[in-house]
Amino acid sequence: MSTIVDTFIAPPCHDKIEILYQDEHLVVTNKPSGLLSLSGKNPQNLDSVHHRLVTIFPGCTLVHRLDFGTSGLMVIARNKAINAALCQQFSQRTVVKVYNALLCGHLESDEGIIDAAIAKDPALFPRMSICAINGKPARSHYQVIERLYRQPEDGIPLPLTRVRLTPQTGRTHQLRIHCQQLGHPILGCDLYGGLSYPGSALTPRLMLHASELHFTHPISNERVTVCHDSPF
């Protein structure tokens, strides 16, 4: 059995967290790319969304996470009861999450479904793998927003497709590995081929942003919708 050894050390993140909504029960923030959601075991990985917010909102806890390179919307509970209620919504899949991404290459279809089970493999850590036998069901919807070209510094035109991604399950690295499975990895994705396309090597970040979050407020029972435009 393989032992997982996490040697990742996060570089300093000087970007601030934006607080987009807050009340006495919960907070919705915009996480910058390059910031951990939760502090790591290594003391050098102390800085995180939770580490910063707990100094402002004592006792707050994360309901869900975003990958280190992903920017965008996160909801944080201000007490245990709210955390439990929101976690139930995530597990029952009543929370709608929408992402904006730039994919390498031009997709042929304007929209579609990626249905591919995802499994953990300690030998591949931190990468996940597509595995129909041992994987957990994972399903994502994509919709093309535009097809474009970018001219990077090395002068090679880079074909890209801007897409709206809606995960219908919540597996680790789901959108990143599903886009690779589609044959069009997310630009800037170091784990799943997003830096291997000609012209992509100098991409400054993972081009994935959590742009919409829809959930039911645990106290008022009203539907909450928070949106934040993609920074790329």
Automatic annotation (TrEMBL):
InterPro entries (alphabetical): PsdUridine_synth_cat_dom_sf, PsdUridine_synth_RluA-like_CS, PsdUridine_synth_RsuA/RluA, RluA_PseudoU_synthase
PROSITE patterns in the record: PSI_RLU
Question: Do you know which Pfam families this protein is assigned to?
Answer: PseudoU_synth_2
Q: Domain Pseudouridine synthase RsuA/RluA-like spans what residues?
A: 25-181
SUPFAM superfamilies xref list: Pseudouridine synthase
Q: Which family does it belong to?
A: Belongs to the pseudouridine synthase RluA family.
Protein's UniProt name: RluA family pseudouridine synthase
